[in-house]
Give the backbone structure.
Amino acid sequence: EPEVTQTPSHQVTQMGQEVILRCVPISNHLYFYWYRQILGQKVEFLVSFYNNEISEKSEIFDDQFSVERPDGSNFTLKIRSTKLEDSAMYFCASSRQAPSGELFFGEGSRLTVL
Amino acid sequence: KNEVEQSPQNLTAQEGEFITINCSYSVGISALHWLQQHPGGGIVSLFMLSSGKKKHGRLIATINIQEKHSSLHITASHPRDSAVYICAVYAGNMLTFGGGTRLMVKP
């Protein structure tokens, strides 16, 4: 069964360092998303991406964040200068349609900022 | 701003019991998702609803658009159903998530 894959599963970084989280969405999906979940809190929407551009972003997704689809398969989230409060689980998801399409989530990348 | 409220926050049931989890939201939506988050953190989509009712195995999801309310029912609950169940609504091109309902089913 096709699945969304994320790497790394866990990354530890120092405050101020750049981090890139990678996702490989399901191959025939057209809509891509990043969400985050701070430990013990709700899942929060970060950004949606369609047709090679951001279609929606939340207030959390400030200038420190960027997304890219550098080739036909990868979808990356970059945090330029990490802060302690960026520590969270980051989930990538993809769907064939939006909003009526089923969402497929990756297993998540846990980011710990020290 | 869209608010998504789930109840109860925590639920403990005995194996075999019928379970209901509720979700209310504050603005008009185009779709509602029910998700299951496993103890390891992974998230799986259970249902996507825009109207009516859907059934998959022992799971049933309903939505009342006028009342801005959805329910997830689990019939004949089993310990493997233990997880966090999350309601998320799609409005304004983004998903807003509820806080989740932590379900534990005891044998």
About this structure: The interface with chain B takes residues 33, 35, 37, 42-45, 48, 55-56, 58, 89, 91, 93, 98-105, 107-108, 110 of chain A (CB under 8 Å).
